Amino acid sequence: MADTKKKLHLEVITPDAAVLNEDVDFIIARALDGDLGILPGHAAIIASLDINPLVYEINGKKNTLAVAAGFLEVNGETATVITSAAEKAGDIDVVRSEHARERAEKRLHGKRDNIDVERAELALKRALCRLQVAHNYGGK
Ligand code: ATP
Description:
ATP Synthase, domain 1, Single alpha-helices involved in coiled-coils or other helix-helix interfaces, 5-stranded mixed β-sheet, 2 helices, binds adenosine-5'-triphosphate
């Protein structure tokens, strides 16, 4: 039987690629001021996204993307995420993220004064987000 459930079209775009282009049942994204649950028919919004896994469901199956900071726009039946980086679980290089996490932690815990704390905190957050997505959903 054809699936007649109303869908939301989700596009995730980075400077390098269109990472996702799918009809989904719902989206859960972390905006800077809290979690957003988006169902088909949601009112138009633009939100700033935090570095966090973005969850979307297709026909009962939950999927997750690691999303760096960016924006989410919902307009009609389309949700567009524009972000500096986004990876599906299976595309995440876990060793790379572990190295990124170690580098950032070393910078944050080191005694040097001239480090860019905010930059290291953001790098740590990106690495932890990727590791969370990869570990929950089987990254390489
Ligand atoms: P790194 O220090 O490992 O480069 P980063 O957080 O500084 O990590 P970004 O600037 O967010 O990396 O991303 C640069 C590019 O590399 C983006 O295209 C992103 O999708 C990709 N990328 C970063 N880390 C990973 C990873 N662990 N697995 C797969 N792709 C990654």
